[in-house]
Design goal:
globular, 19% strand, 15 strands, 35% helix, 11 helices, alpha+beta, seven-stranded antiparallel β-sheet, Beta-lactamase
């Protein structure tokens, strides 16, 4: 009899737990809003922008919190966030547009297209475009990057000058042991911010255009991304302030840039990035504008180096294996961002925040699952 009572008690508790789980399940936009508000409180996030879409249709879009606490400015849909490494997807698309123009092949050595030679101190294998796009180039992020942050202004150091002097022996920022890994290009994977910045230089040298100008003319303007900027001095309105959270207080970091900006310096809104990611989700096109062709998009979101890594495409990654979400995330001083979509359902989500310690993986997953229901 005692056993039966214990057994009944256990069943009763399981029923209660099940009811509780159902109660907390996110079934609609109202549930998701409450969930986001709780996450902002639990993770000390001052401002959060969330957007869920399917194809070209926005299913959910809301902005919460304050873009600037000190000035008491509530977050609006037109206020750009610093995107951090999500920026790399835009840089990759810029390069791949030139690839589609037939100006190079992905397996070509990059030195054939640069005005300076990039060779690791002990390596003999030429670095290719594909290696840059899969983080297998062997180019490392050395301490010289730490001195390339500029607060309240755009970097006065020209991108090409910095990369040449970082990667070529004798350069102002060169350090053989810090700036290169000790493996042959193509044989290992090490995430490389500098490798992505070098893609920006390749875009400039191959196209003959300034990288910022190229992105405006070939990506931002055609897609109608009117609140997307590489440079601080081009933004007239409110920019979302990055914050640290320490000792129960928010500390404004200030607006900043860095010389190697193509790898993380883009500022944009969830709505603008929706247009970009929607184009990727729809095999390269949004609103009648072809950003890339379908075969290139498929390559970006397909495993490129399965023998080395089971999550890497061409500057896109599998962010959530269970739901097959392809995308990218980002983290910088005072910002955390994430965006991804499912290739089959064409449902995706974009989450932007202004607190660098925020963990957005679960929020992304919940946003996607809600998108399947909306």
């Amino acid at each position: 009899m005692v056993y039966q009572l214990k057994h009944i008690t256990i069943i009763f508790l399981l029923i209660i737990a099940g009811a509780s789980c159902k109660k907390n399940e996110i079934n609609n936009a109202k549930d998701f809003e409450k969930y986001l508000e709780n996450e902002m409180k639990d993770q000390n996030i001052p401002a959060l922008s969330a957007l869920i879409f399917k194809g070209e249709t926005i299913l959910f879009e809301e902005n919460y919190g304050q873009a600037n606490i000190e000035d008491n400015i509530n977050l609006a849909s037109t206020h750009p966030f610093l995107l951090a490494s999500i920026s790399k997807t835009v840089t990759a698309v810029a390069l791949l547009q030139l690839y589609e123009d037939g100006l190079f092949s992905l397996d070509d050595p990059i030195n054939d297209y640069l005005s300076f030679a990039v060779n690791g101190p002990e390596e003999t294998t030429p670095i290719t475009f594909k290696m840059l796009l899969t983080h297998t180039s062997g180019i490392a992020d050395g301490s010289a990057l730490d001195g390339q942050y500029y607060y309240g202004e755009d970097s006065p150091v020209e991108l090409g000058y910095f990369l040449e002097n970082y990667l070529v022996p004798g350069g102002e920022f060169y350090n053989a042991t810090e700036n290169y890994h000790d493996f042959e290009p193509g044989t290992d994977v090490e995430y490389s911010n500098v490798g992505n910045a070098l893609i920006g230089v390749l875009v400039e040298e191959i196209s003959g255009m300034n990288f910022n100008t190229y992105c405006k003319e070939k990506i931002f303007t055609p897609l109608g991304m009117t609140h997307t900027f590489w440079r601080l001095d081009e933004i007239a309105g409110t920019i979302v302030m990055p914050y640290n959270y320490s000792g129960g207080n928010y500390e404004a970091i200030g607006h900043y840039t860095f010389t190697d900006y193509p790898n993380g310096g883009l500022r944009s809104t969830a709505n603008d990035m929706f247009k970009f990611l929607s184009a990727i989700a729809q095999n390269g096109s949004y609103g009648g504008v072809e950003l890339l062709n379908a075969s290139t998009v498929n390559a970006m979101t397909s495993l490129q180096i399965p023998d080395l890594d089971d999550e890497t495409g061409l500057h896109f990654f599998i962010m959530n294996k269970e739901n097959e979400l392809w995308g990218h995330d980002g983290g910088e001083q005072g910002v955390a961002t994430i965006m991804a979509y499912n290739k089959s359902t064409k449902v995706g989500a974009i989450i932007l925040t202004n607190q660098g310690e925020a963990n957005l993986d679960k929020i992304l997953e919940e946003a996607y699952l809600l998108g399947l229901k909306l």
